[in-house]
Structure to design on (603 residues):
């Protein structure tokens, strides 16, 4: 972008010698507006992709953060639930139209999430936390291997979902509708979720259970039902996230849930695990920064950034952006 | 802030008088309405934790409209008794009858639905919820209009009304204890059990808590009270049981126990005269 203007004599030459990299209007100030526009038009596509991917991470991260908030459990199977949702869409779409297969995907994912809690976590309710976590890791491998068995290890082609796969042009960027739709849908769902948690009886019960199981029982709250509800919400959001995420990819393989799951987990930790707004903000930041790094030509380092972030957060602010201080229950 | 507010509370601001708003508390009936029956009958209750017997074969009754207290030292099995009544611990044997209905084998939610609440040891208010939300949680199983009961508990505890929108974690210890009691009242129980309501409170606040306990009892509430503060508990109680290492060793009218030389020496810190 360096534009050289005819050399001027005297003091002006020195001026030009040091400012050759900045576009200047001859004899006047640097062209800030032009620079900004250059930067924007160059990075807009990456920024949009970042917002979109961030929204998808956020939908997954909420599942991690809510389950942690209530059970103090990192649900390692969450990323694989997300992957299974992708596979369900693929298989369902081969036998039925999309307007049926998408609701079916959401339903199956919700039931799967609920069943996993019932079978793998509920029997361990009074066991040490480590046992439940190991059980979660077990479920994660179980889902991956089941998927491997069912798909035969072949990448399954993700169906093209009309409308959200259409391209739109925004300024200098050409992108899919899903890129624009994701953050909007995510924000709508998060607002609804926060309303549910803050202003309904079940939401109040969820907050009670997250502070104190035993006392919640004394209020007459069915703690198991509240926990199921948490898994239902988390899996529902993961299913929605999977539809938005896999639309951008040609196919789903059994390990497809790994990376987005891990990144959403980092987002939840970064935002302060247990906090829903924290998870959303963490996910958006990770999504945007990752894509801007790709835009700068350092694609190789974009994943590394996320995990370096995890290490830095754990070292310097383990409670994350909005996490509550780790005090034990009184 | 604690000193000043405590003093303000001590001058009688906290315990409101229950005048016209005794809204809907007729469901309990009053003392002397009819023949007194035993609301709760515990028979041969045993509770053990991995081989250690915390409660060894105890039996006692809680008559309707009365205050009954279990006193005893640390580890005597008082809390375990209360916790097993609401199924927070699984009894190893024995039976618990409430209004003639067997409670053992029921879940906590079901027992609460039957009309028993426990004000847990250490208050255990939901610190992240507002005072108002805590009260709403107390009434979790109810689907009717809460307004008259809210007005009632607010008139009983005016301080809670002032702090209605404040997170419960920001309340002082005494206020949290009041909230825990108010929250228990919101479920409209037939019987309230309290586990060490005076624990960790300034003597002046302890007095207030006991005033509240008497006030609630006057309204017809049956109360089962577990206390280490034997002096206060026996003064307030109609009936007392002394527990020692999982057994009931003495029982009698509250006043009689308070005068019993053995009890005086062991729990009231007074030498035999």
């Amino acid at each position: 972008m360096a534009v050289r203007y005819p050399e001027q004599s005297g003091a002006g030459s020195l001026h030009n010698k040091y400012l050759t990299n900045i576009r200047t209007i001859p004899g006047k100030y640097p062209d800030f507006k032009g620079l900004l526009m250059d930067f924007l038009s160059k990075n807009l596509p990456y920024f949009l992709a970042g917002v979109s991917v961030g929204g998808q991470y956020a939908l997954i991260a909420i599942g991690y953060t809510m389950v942690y908030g209530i059970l103090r459990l990192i649900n390692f199977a969450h990323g694989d639930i997300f992957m299974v949702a992708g596979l369900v869409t693929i298989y369902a779409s081969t036998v039925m139209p999309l307007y049926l297969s998408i609701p079916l995907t959401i339903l199956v994912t919700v039931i799967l999430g609920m069943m996993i809690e019932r079978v793998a976590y509920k029997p361990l309710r009074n066991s040490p936390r480590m046992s439940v976590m190991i059980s979660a890791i077990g479920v994660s491998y179980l889902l991956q291997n089941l998927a491997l068995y069912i798909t035969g290890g072949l990448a399954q082609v993700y169906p093209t979902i009309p409308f959200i796969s259409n391209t739109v042009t925004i300024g200098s960027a050409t992108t899919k509708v899903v890129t624009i739709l994701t953050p909007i849908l995510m924000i709508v769902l998060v607002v609804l979720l926060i309303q549910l948690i803050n202003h309904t009886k079940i939401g109040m019960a969820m907050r009670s259970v997250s502070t104190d199981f035993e006392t919640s029982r004394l209020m007459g709250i069915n703690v198991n039902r509240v926990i199921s509800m948490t898994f239902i919400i988390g899996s529902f959001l993961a299913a929605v996230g999977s539809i938005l995420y896999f639309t951008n990819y040609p196919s789903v393989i059994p390990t497809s849930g790994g990376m987005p799951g891990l990144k959403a987990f980092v987002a939840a930790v970064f935002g302060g695990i247990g906090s829903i707004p924290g998870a959303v903000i963490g996910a958006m930041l990770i999504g945007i920064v990752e894509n801007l790094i790709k835009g700068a030509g350092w694609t190789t380092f974009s994943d590394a950034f996320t995990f370096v972030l995890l290490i830095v957060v754990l070292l310097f602010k383990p409670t994350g952006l909005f996490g509550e201080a780790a005090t034990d229950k009184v | 802030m604690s000193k000043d507010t405590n003093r303000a509370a001590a001058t009688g601001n906290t315990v409101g008088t229950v005048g016209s708003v005794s809204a809907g508390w007729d469901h309990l009936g009053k003392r002397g309405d009819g023949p007194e029956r035993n609301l709760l009958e515990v028979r041969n209750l045993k509770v053990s934790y991995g081989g250690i017997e915390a409660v060894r074969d105890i039996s006692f009754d809680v008559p309707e409209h009365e205050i009954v207290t279990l006193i005893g030292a640390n580890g005597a099995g008082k809390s375990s008794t209360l916790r097993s009544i609401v199924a927070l611990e699984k009894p190893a044997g024995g039976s618990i009858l409430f209004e003639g209905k067997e409670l053992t084998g029921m879940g906590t939610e079901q027992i609460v639905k039957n009309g028993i609440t426990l004000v847990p040891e250490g208050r255990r208010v939901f610190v992240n919820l507002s005072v108002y939300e805590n009260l709403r949680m107390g009434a979790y199983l109810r689907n009717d209009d809460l307004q008259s009961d809210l007005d009632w508990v607010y008139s009983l505890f005016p301080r809670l009304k002032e702090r209605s929108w404040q997170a419960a974690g920001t309340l002082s210890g005494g206020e949290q204890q009041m909230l825990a009691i108010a929250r228990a009242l919101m479920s409209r129980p037939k019987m309230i059990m309290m586990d060490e309501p005076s624990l960790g409170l300034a003597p002046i606040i302890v007095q207030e808590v006991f005033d509240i306990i008497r006030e609630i009892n006057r309204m017809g509430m049956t109360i089962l009270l577990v206390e280490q503060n034997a002096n206060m508990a026996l003064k307030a109680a109609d009936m007392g049981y002394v527990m020692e290492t999982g057994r009931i060793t003495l029982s009698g009218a509250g006043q009689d126990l308070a005068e019993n030389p053995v009890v005086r020496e062991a729990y009231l810190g007074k030498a035999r005269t």
User: Anything to note?
Assistant: DSSP finds twelve helices and four strands in chain A. The domain at 51-316 of chain A is CATH 1.10.3470 (ABC transporter involved in vitamin B12 uptake, BtuC). Chain A has a mean pLDDT of 89.
